[in-house]
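Assemble and predict.
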Amino acid sequence: MPDNNLDVPGSAEVFSAAQDIAERIHRTPLMTSGLIDRACGANLFFKCEHLQKTGAFKARGASNALCRLPAGTTMVATHSSGNHGAALAWAAAARGIACTVVMPETSPLAKRAAVAGYGAEIVLCGPTLADREAALRKVVDDSGAHVVPPFDDRRIIAGQGTVALEILEQCRERGFTPDIVLAPVGGGGLLAGTGLAMAAMAPEVLVLGAEPAGADDAQRSLRSGVHVTSQTPDTIADGLRTPLGERNFAVIRQTVKDIVTASEKSIVDAMQLLWTRTKQLVEPSAAVPLAAILEHPARFRDKKVALVLSGGNMDLVRAASLFAGEESEP
Amino acid sequence: MPDNNLDVPGSAEVFSAAQDIAERIHRTPLMTSGLIDRACGANLFFKCEHLQKTGAFKARGASNALCRLPAGTTMVATHSSGNHGAALAWAAAARGIACTVVMPETSPLAKRAAVAGYGAEIVLCGPTLADREAALRKVVDDSGAHVVPPFDDRRIIAGQGTVALEILEQCRERGFTPDIVLAPVGGGGLLAGTGLAMAAMAPEVLVLGAEPAGADDAQRSLRSGVHVTSQTPDTIADGLRTPLGERNFAVIRQTVKDIVTASEKSIVDAMQLLWTRTKQLVEPSAAVPLAAILEHPARFRDKKVALVLSGGNMDLVRAASLFAGEESEP
């Protein structure tokens, strides 16, 4: 379906990924909240990827990539704002392969601690994509490591798409097919994989992305048809600050209907709703789909919407401080 | 089994409660964490009562009490540091009965908001038990409300005991019986109910309580055999500051082997482990059983321990600030 001159995955690769990673990852629960449903006027089904191995869906793509390394690979490397780095470190450790992760100095402390906890080496760099790529190139030049990119990679896209296969299975086990599947979009691995999975399995389901208004390159790319390759992100959703990947855009423009944005206030409101009402500790990026629904209720009214709680890794004090204005004593 | 001159429940009342409240409450999940197991050297099974209706096990006792009101009751009242008040407000609202809750001014804002959110009237009072009882007496004198006490009541003890019945069922569905069931103890409703349930269903299981060292009246009472009726609690576990009830002590001394205490540091460590590793937002009181295990590992080594995550209601900013020293940037 997508442009074949580009090295992009097809739906079949999502099915292969699902088979190959099944024993390494969790089949995470699909959660509901009557209270949040009433607040939104829709029926929401939260796919709990914050309960996935390493605390984020990224464990899926990393596991899939590790199943598909070139023969003889003894070391992998990547750059990541956090969750992909931890996932790769975890997947590599499980197979006894060395791992180096290039991380921006601005990445949350909890995410750095997770990467180090899985035994990977961390190389810090500046905040831009160019900074990350330069630091990663140096690691590869020095060590010969095989690079597993965080999102712009067919193995990663296919692995993340397994989230959507599970969502569909779990909805059908309950006797329905969702009207909409809504996934957050940063680099676009999860959203592209979701698009591939649903195109093959349930083309009648509307696949939408959710993105911070302060990092809306995916929306601008999809709506204009021209890949926006640079932006200056301004959002608390640190997992979604990365620009949309090239392969990701190629798949998304074929399989995703639209991208819905959310303001910073809606993201904080959604995160607070999730923390207080479901008692689930999700990170800001994971709250973006619910934030998009809160901000655009008419688009979702009375619909069955499956949305991905993408991760649960964050500095707790910093996250809680976002609520300070609303929570503190009067 | 307990002293029959006192108005205490027997095990049969726990079974009746389980039948009568089944349709009103959640059968909450029993969760495991490989990482926490490795940290403790034991196999832990967390009963997720923070995911119960109203965010705490207290919904069980309140539901049971509402099934057993004197004929013609049109209004109920209670005093509570928070979770019982919210639970009674919720249970009363479900039956169209008016409800007033006397709450200490020191109770967390989130708990007050919950009570108000279920439509109950709040009367604020001073921090001591005497303050609460005086305020409640005035409400009753003025309104004729029927009092549903927070813990020292046979309907409440029986209702809370249904947690333990479910734990046992869920363990046996997985093919084992726990070696130990560990419940937090404040007023003692949950622990007494747990003792009754296990005495009838699995007397070979060791039932233990977990209590903050800064509010250790239950340990002192059980070990000395003399009911300690006053204390000056000093703990962040706000749900466990209440002194042990009289009926509760009568049941606990017959059915509970010992009470294990936890320091404030262990409580914070346990809460942080639960937040970061399981992504479950539990309140400080709910972390006390895990804190007791962390502090006394030899008593639990290699055992199958079921423990109750009793609730998830708190002021998030205040709770997160407890971690500030360990979490903030270096």
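Confidence is low (pLDDT under 50) at residues 326-330 of chain B.
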